[in-house]
Amino acid sequence: MNLLVVGGGGREHAIIQKLRESPAVETIYALPGNGGIAQDAVCVPEIGAKDIGKIVDFARSHRIDFAVVAPDDPLALGCVDRLHAAGIPCFGPDAKAARIESSKVFAKNLMKKYGIPTARYEVFDDPQKALDYLRRGGVSFPAVIKADGLALGKGVLIPQTLEEAERAVRQIMEERAFGDSGREIVIEEFLTGPEVSVLAFTDGTAIAPMVSSMDHKRAGDGDTGLNTGGMGTVAPNPFYTPETAAVCMETIFLPTLAAMRAEGCPFKGCLYFGLMLTPDGPKVIEYNCRFGDPETQVVLPLLKTDLLTVMRAVEEETLGNLEVEWSGGAAACVILASGGYPEHYEKGKTITLPEALPENVTLYHAGDALREDGKLVTSGGRVLGVTASAPTLKKALKDAYAAAEAVDFDGKYLRTDIGKRALAALEG
Ligand code: AMP
Ligand code: GLY
Question: Are the C-beta atoms of 411 and 372 separated by less than 8 Å?
Fold first, then answer.
């Protein structure tokens, strides 16, 4: 089969490497892909992930048998709808179902209507009303203020005081710090507890949750600094016990799928549940309509079942007949970022990779490019994800950090405490 993967980050690299293990796969095209992905797929840098028309034309002219649309933007823009209309089977939700991520207002209202546990909230489309609500003491501090639309994971502010909250409302709604995604906002209560990411394959009715994981969203050690796309991940997440998983299945996962069906937008693809294990039980912080990045880089290495088989079962709505199997070990991913990320950083730094890597270590390329002279150079904030799999988390972390040391580029920045909390929880 000829496959097409839309996207060009570390997540897409992990998906492509896993798909390559499938005996049915002949060629994989990555649109646009990146410098490192070019070792594993035919990259088409001229076609960006949001060029929906060009993606569909490419899929037609290259006789694509199956497409995987990985990032949120093309999903929200209806890439899957358009590929389906062209007769191309694909993995990912249609635009209507992708609203579960692309509109936080939609997601929050869905949870309220169907009794799915989440933070208490109010929605505002008028800054004055939002300010009145805050001044009336409608929410206590810290509070959480979220822009409605997609904002590269940055549209969430956590003001500690009324003054900070007022500034946040103005930034999002009046100055449009996150563009049009700030037309509406959600103001919600601040929840506490360990965060867990659960990605799940679903065909709209059946669901196969993947191994749980833990992201590290802040830029600095000790969870300090700005929010980023994610500086590292570990799987499984030790806070997510089998008992918690059972509660989530009953109170969150199955009700969410039923709610989406009832709303006339059944969700097919990978549904990402961002959960907080609060003292009152697990609650939904956010949904994403796609694989997480860098969660995918620790979850897919632990998948034993053929990924293409699973994805086709999702598309054909036969997931309920398939047993999706996982290896019992652990994985850790350490992100190597460009110094200055998530704010200003330089690009074009030459990357030196180790000549050989241990068998249990993989480098997932996220933000790099092949220069004309054949040199691999940095081209983004998150440059590489170094993943190690091992029987224990401790060993996975040791091996990931050792390999991270062996990669070099000017300004390389990494967090030194990925997995520290998880290890502490495991070691009691
Ligand atoms: P989101 O983009 O919705 O995942 O939010 C980004 C991050 O903000 C989350 O990973 C949480 O760490 C934090 N966050 C979002 N909503 C809440 C909430 N209601 N209470 C506490 N923290 C939150
Ligand atoms: N790592 C968080 C996300 O993919 O949204």
Answer: no
